[in-house]
Amino acid sequence: MFLEMLKLALRAVRRNLLRSFLTVLGVIIGVSAVILMVTVANGTAEQVRTEIARLGTDVLFVRPGQRAPGAASEAAKGFTERDIAALRNQIPDLRAVAPQNIADATVVAGGNNRKTVVIGTSDAFLDAQDWTIESGSDFAGAEVAAGDTACILGATVKQTLFADDDPVGRNVRVGNISCAVIGTLGAKGEAGMGRDQDDIVLMPIATFQRRLGGDSYIESIVLAAKDGVSTQDLKAEVGDLLRERRNILPGRPDDFEVNDMTEITNAVSGTKSHLTGMLAAIAGVSLLVGGIGIMNIMLVSVTERTREIGLRLTVGALERQVLLQFIVEALVLSISGGVAGIVIGLGLAYAAVQYLSLPFVIDPWMIAGAFGFSALIGLIFGYFPARRAARLSPIDALRFE
């Protein structure tokens, strides 16, 4: 019997194909919007997780101030070389401690130039970031301490300024500073959202502070733990030492943050969950509008087929059979819209992640949820017209003009 009702429903849909399409357009838009937005959000989160994993799970980042609303001050003072020395000397579980100040600058060599990111740091930076030297050498401790105008070029900057020539031993201009190139970095490739990790120039922190930054503070610190050391335990040690050095009284909040990769990953996941929930709510409104459209068109269909319903009831059809027939028609409409929305949404999502250079991450639960929700829309909004059809009086229905 159900198969027969399904055939009748498909016949009714085919009979008014354009009207059926317009009816389920809201469902198609809602479902495809959910698939598109959630897939892009999943791809973004996956890209960030991959990038974080590439940075290393044993790395900590320390920065002044607190990002929590109302906590700490954005104006919290930066760190000093004495803080770096204290971390290096008093916490034996740290493998590398590197300062990090960042600024944008234009690098010029000959007739070529490139706007890039300049990082002021020390000879511990490459170890902390698991980076290698391709040619030349890393900073020597004396160069860092003296603030020599030396620099190391990332692979992209090197390629832009020198193509296939070896830049080691030659001079470049970083902003207004003339710098001797002492080395080039091995290539790391693109990071999240297409960011080029190799588009950087490294210089000694003292040079950066004196010639680019204009002050002696350190904006952030990169820490790397020794093998087998818990980053959670290390965070506590770093926090205690910095509280002591920054004279923070017991009970007072920190005016700095120590973050590890796990926390950053969790923060990304939390942001993604909030974003997904918001997008799903917006798409839910489209599905609701689609459901109202289905109910409206089913009421029209009941009116148009009143005599047919009366004839069926007269020859012995039961109310529940009429009820089931119209519910099946509503389900066919909404599920058709849901399936079309899934296919269109996946196609749009694939095009979007290709354009944004993100991984294509399909969530089976999202697809199952979109399919189930579209069916639920048909069931809910198809019930009222179906009940109205089932409760028609056979005599009145046959008299209907």
UniProtKB/TrEMBL annotation:
Any matching Pfam family = MacB_PCD
What keywords sit in the KW lines?
ATP-binding, Cell membrane, Hydrolase, Membrane, Nucleotide-binding, Transmembrane, Transmembrane helix
MacB-like periplasmic core domain: residues covered: 20-239
In short, the EC number is 3.6.3.-
- Where does it sit, as one GO cellular component term? plasma membrane
Please state the protein's primary subcellular location.
Answer: membrane
Return one GO MF term: hydrolase activity
User: What compartments host this protein?
Assistant: Cell membrane
Q: Which residues cross the membrane?
A: 21-41, 278-302, 323-353, 365-384
Write down the InterPro entries for this protein, in alphabetical order: ABC3_permease_C (IPR003838), MacB_PCD (IPR025857), Macrolide_Exporter_MacB (IPR050250)
Give the protein family. Belongs to the ABC-4 integral membrane protein family.
Q: What is this protein called?
A: Macrolide export ATP-binding/permease protein MacB
Tell me which species this is from.
Martelella mediterranea DSM 17316
Name of the gene this protein is made from: macB_3
